[in-house]
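Review session, final week

We close the course with one last complete record, chosen because it touches almost every idea we covered. It is FtsX-like permease family protein, a protein from Flagellimonas hadalis with 805 residues. Go through it on your own first, then we will talk.
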Amino acid sequence: MLKNYFKIAWRNLIKNRVFSLANIVGLSCAFAVAILLTMTALFELSFDQFHENKDSAYQLYLSNQTPRGSEISTSNPVPLAPALKEEVSGIKHIARAVSEDVLVTYNAKELSLDAEYVDPAYFDIFTYPTLFGNTENPLPEKNTVAISEETAQKIFGTTDNVVGKTISLKMGREEQPFTIASILAETPKNSSVDFEIVVPFESHPDYLSNKDVWDSQFHPIYLQLEKGVSVAQFEENTIPFTALHYKGSIESEMRDGAVPDADGRYKQFHLMPIADRHFASYTSGVAKVDRVFPYMILGIAFVIIFIVSANFINMSIALSEKRLKEIGMRKTLGAIKKQLFFQFWMESLVVFAASVLLGLVASNLLLNPFKTLFRTKASFSDVTQPSVIILFVLALFIITLIAGGYPALLMSKLGTLKALKGKLEVGRNRLRNSLIVLQFVIAIILISGTLVLHGQIEFMRNKDLGYNKEQVVSIPLNGKKNSYSVVNLLRDELKGNPDILGVSGADNNLGRGRDGSQSSSMMGFDYKGRGVITNALTVDYDYAKTLDLQLVAGRAFDRDFATDSLSLVINETMAKQLGDEDPLSIRIPMDDGAVTYSVIGVIKDYHFQEISRQIEPLTLFMNKDWDLYYAYVKVAPKNVAKSFDAIKTAWGKIEPQAEFLGSFLDENVDRTFRREKTMATIVSSGSVLGILLSCIGLFAISMLVVAQRTKEIGVRKVVGASVSSVALLLTKDFLKLVGIAFVIATPIAWYFLNEWLQNYAFHVTLSPLFFMGAGFLATLIAFITVGTRTVKAASANPVTSLRTE
């Protein structure tokens, strides 16, 4: 019986080869893309899931009620972790950690590595296996380090006999010897933390100076709770601790007019689960977990499968009219509903099985280009897990049951006489039209999303950031020499080059450089009896000139003024926060009044942070006790490539052992919205594929509709109807469906896109043109798809059309 079902199914597929091919091509493309998208989404959702203690491990953060509103801090003071462990019950393990680059030297070989400074308990909380060396404690002493397997290969060319060897680490301005105590397995691709070397936290250059300081915050804290201790219990346990250790800060906030939270508190510790860390954000004073990106990818995969399944259902119903007499005859000969149902279902299973196999082959061929295009480290191992395979098989079973089962059920319910007469209930068109509308609703939403996403990216790319991003190169200072010496040597080396217009330095980058780092420094002080918070930036001479920053008042740092080490340059937002009519008269005492700084200049606000954020207060210092971490070189607009090569050559003379990682600031800015570009690429690809698949179905349905109305077309042509009128008659019904889809899709797209844009302090205006463009594009594509077939039918000889009956 099964063999007979399969044989009839194969014959019917061959008989209707055009529609079979359309179904198989559409389904194969859909399955290939859905597999790749699902693989990417599951990889994103798997971040930090490999930690054995993920259910009891957390990142600590502090909510603060300030005069500016609620604020959240994940940076903590050095003495906080030991004090929490000692004074607050419920903590099993607690560890401090900070990510920084470190320069490693071994036998004249220099490498800049991603370092993680951690407490020993870090390895009790997180799962990073040790391959060689001390498996109990990878960092047994203060002068030991742990390196990854790949790092061992980089430094020594092998992992054998590496444990026990000594390397030198340059931290801050000092170089110290460290012994390799262990070699760790490579960090998984789905880890939020990616390090090449691990160093004891107590060896951090800022540790000793901040060991007992509570108002200097620069590192996150992770902890594991005791068994049976809930997050709520822990947070309750920290209330007396917070009231004691943050008493002065709380009193300052109260004095300045801060409003307590709903529980009447000004500061409260909270915990963010480690499994949520990759998706956590702390903007606008709220900690939230946002998995929109992976769920959006899954959603696009789902709608693509839905579109081709809808095509399959529509074509199956439409084609079934050709088989009514066959069904009637089989029913006359004794076929029962179940047999007819299984026959139709078998045909859908054959098509879907072939499509899945072709989709798997296609997805495998497209894997590497896909990973490059979407910048993902996902692999097929993410979709070959038993649970995923079972879910996929179950989904396939349900899809085929619906896609093949509905037409089968419709046919098998027909009376024998109706089937023999070739009469099918007209109600089938309602389902067909509903599915076409739904397909185009999805397509229009995706097209609208594509247009808005690209519009937002272009808005961010072309926005005036307040500094010269096209002509300035930033270079991480990752060598051994003193940072100020390197900047001065660059000036001297490049001063004879007419294409070099300026050289300066700072302790932070603009955008995200090739070294991948992006950080900021905050500081607070009292001014006229109230607390002030500002971003702090250490700069060298000519910083404003090199970046083309605009001076609103006063002057920039100048070599002719010896007192500039005790001077400040602030931005407009900082000047507004200080509130003085004449900002150049401001004197700010710091270090408990031991030092007084004078404001000498005000610069126009510029985007020194991500473009999505409001511009915050900024204070520029020029203190030689604080290191610079980046050099900036401004080049002339002509001969840009030649100037870049000259900078690279100069760097090779000054720091021959250090890798040159220079990049233009516009490249750095582009890297800060890499996620948006990936989203735009995925949504664009989804919209193109969605509209293409919808049109395959629309084209096939239009062919069947034209075939059903062949006689009508011939009669209209005989009585004088023009080709255009006949083509319009056949096309307008489909265009009405696209119009209905546009009316439904536009408010849905507007709502979700408007919500998404609220994440950006500066964003493109949500113009009606985006949606009109999406609707016009969908209509045009549908018109071309259906019109090509209807025009051909309308142009046919009416005598031939009438003979078809």
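Two points worth writing down before the exam:
The mean pLDDT is 85.
The first helix runs from residue 2 to 15.
Good luck, everyone.
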